Structures are given as structure tokens and as C-alpha cells.
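Fold it.
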Amino acid sequence: MSQASSNTPGNTDNTNNTTNTTNKAKATGSAKMAPARDMLGRMPLVSVAEAAGLLLERLGDCNLEAEHVALEDALDRITAEPVLSPEDLPPHPRSTMDGFAVHSGDTFGASESMPCYLQITSEVLMGEKSDTEVTRGCCCRIATGGLLPPGADAVVMHEHTVPVDDTMIEIVKSVGQGGNVIQTGDDIRRHAPALNAGHRLRPQDLGLLAGLGITEVAVRRRTRMALLSTGDEIVPCSQTPPPGKIRNINSIVLGSAARRMGAEVNDYGIVEDTEECFFPAIEKAVAENDLVVFSGGSSVGTRDLGEKAISRLGEPGVIVHGVTLKPGKPIIIGFHKKTPLFGLPGHPVSAMTCFDLFVRPALLAIAGILAQPLQPTVSAYLTRNIPSSAGRRDIVRVRLIPNEDSFSGETFSAEPVLGKSGSISTLSRAHGYIVVNESLQGIPQNTEVEVHLYT
């Protein structure tokens, strides 16, 4: 699968923009001011990029404290400090091939028409060190990973030799000094950085640390994310909803997405749409967590408690209420000191869209991930025209259909998954989404687009 180029129609630079904006804010030492309100106290709509910039600038350097964990418990954790190598790896020269350890000069000019002949005088057993020196005109049998014996400076591949008898071989291809050998410290040098701070630990990273004898590592503690669902119409998903009620979908969707990112999710359940219930729940969530997400209560109206609750916490309060985005327009972003709060729309598709564009980058920033990984993408060709309004960013869910192309290998078609923002099945049927940027008035059929994959 290949990534679309940066000039692909519908390509989004949200992650790069927000990361660059954060770096700029750190350099200037100041954050942007929230947009001014109108005469009725309403905040204007802002672009997705501007909203993300306001968010990440205010997050600043709110990295989490460090803790030490055992290597087997460190998968997907974030390194809190650089990890330095305590030793050279490998500690001794090793063969990278099955063959014979030799003096490289003895093989000079060797070919099938004019082979050279060497005596087999010793063998390196796996897991053991050979004390027998390889002298000129001689060689030592060696397996992949075996320690290079003294006197040898290269390894001739087994495929480039012909046995004469049990004590002699023909060499039909020469080898240069250091050939087929990994030298001391070639993998990593002692005191060199094995891993940088802010690195998400993958299986291969844990393998590197294990190879260096490191059995525990300093990582950031897990981000604590509060999750609240608001709305008198919401009932637990375990219940059969009566007329006028719906099951709570967002807690499962948003909580699972956050856990996949390594966050510790604290679910405060369903909170009634009253000040007496909602305000204390928000205050408790802020006090006990690093980031707060509530779904529902984000639309402008008489029953909107989200903005009131965030404002009541004190400065800086709400910094964004509404973005030029479909779906997800009525999102609220606010802060209590350094703790970000997000009011996501109640419709699951809108809520998940806002999570991807705003909550996900905030979780990465708080966790201290310095090089924020891009969401995986694949190039595909649209199966139909996508209309859009200029000045608004549209997120269009698509499913991928493999195509066989005799010239370029496997390609994909992107088929839009149409449906309302409250239709959770559209998320389940989609493999990812495309972005129609604010400057476009739609994307024509057969255009190559970048599909951001749901993982």
C-alpha cells in the first residue's frame, strides 16, 4: 500500500500543522488568544487547523511524570528519557553467514576458473568462543552468529566454497576484509542513544533493549482520561431502551479508542442534563484526570451545559466552540489550568471524528510523544463525485475495494459510505475516511485521494 503525495486532492495536513504550530508557540513563548465573542456572547466558528493550533499551544509542556516498568510490561509505553546503551552490541565480531572464517587476503582473486585452497583447521561451535587462531592458508568452519575466531577478518559464504575433502575446501569467490562480519559495536555503540525520549515502545524496541541487557525502562505514566456521557435520552447499552431513549454508544467507542492509544480511561457513566448533576461530575473528573471528554451537551441551545461547566471552572475556560467541520461542527474545547476538556457531539460519527482530529493529538502531546506518528494512509480512487461547501472541512467515510492493475500492482477504489452522523453502522462499514479541505468544492470521481485508515 502506498501513501498519496502531499498534493493529493483531499489531503489533510492536520497532524503536521498542529505539530508545527506547537513548536512555533514554544519558540515564541505565547499562545494564541481564543476568538472574540459576538454581542450575544457566542463564539465564532474557527477552522479545524486553527482549533487544533489553539489546543496544542495551550497544552505546552504538560508531560506526565515518569515511572519504571519491567521490559515485559513496557509495550506501547512512552519513554520518559533517552535510553543509553550500556555496552557495545554486538560485544564481539560475529559471522552473518554460514561458511568459513578466513584471512581475506588468502582469497584475493579467487574465482570458479581459478579457485584458492584452504585447510580447515578448526570449527567455531555456537555459543562458544574459539581460542584457535586462524593462520594464513587456513580457515575455520563457522555458523551464522558464531564468534569470529582470532586471526580471521572475514567469512566466506558456504555457497562460495567447494569441498575437496574433510580437511580442505576450494574458494571460488573472493571476500574483502570485514566481509560477512558484523563488528563490535556495529549495531550500537556503548553510551550511544538506543532510544530517544518520547518514543513509543514497539516489539522491536523491546528486543533492542533486551539485547543490551536492559530489564526495565523509564516511561511516562499512562494518561488518565475521564469519560462522561450526557443526555436524558441515554441509557446503558445493557438495557432495552424505551421509546425516546437510545443506548450509550459513545462510551464504548471513545473509551476503546483512547485505550488503544495507551490511555487509562475512567468512565464516569451517564450524567443527567442538570447543573446539579453535571457540574459536580465535571469538577470531579478534572480533579482526578489529565484530560476530560464528555459527549452530548455541545450544541448551542438552552440545555447546553458543557460551555457553562467549563467556564465555571475558571480561566482560561472555553477556547473553541464550533469548527468549520462536517461532521463535528459543535465541538467544545476548553481548559482548566493545564487540563484540556472536550465536549463532543452526541452523534457517534461526529464524536469519533472530533476524537480523531482533536482528542487524539491531545493524548499524544500529553503522553510526551515527540514525533507524533501519522495515522496510516493508503491511496485510492474515488468511485463517485463528492460534493462539498467551500470554507468547510468535510470528513467522508469510505470503504476500500481492491483492484488489480497489471502495471502498478494492487490498487484500491474508495467507495463513500453514506449515512447520517447518528448512524454507527457507517463507522463499522468504513475502512477509513478522506478529507475534503476547506479550499475545495468537492472531489470529482476517479480522483486519487488519501484514505486515513481506521486501525
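The longest strand covers residues 393-405.
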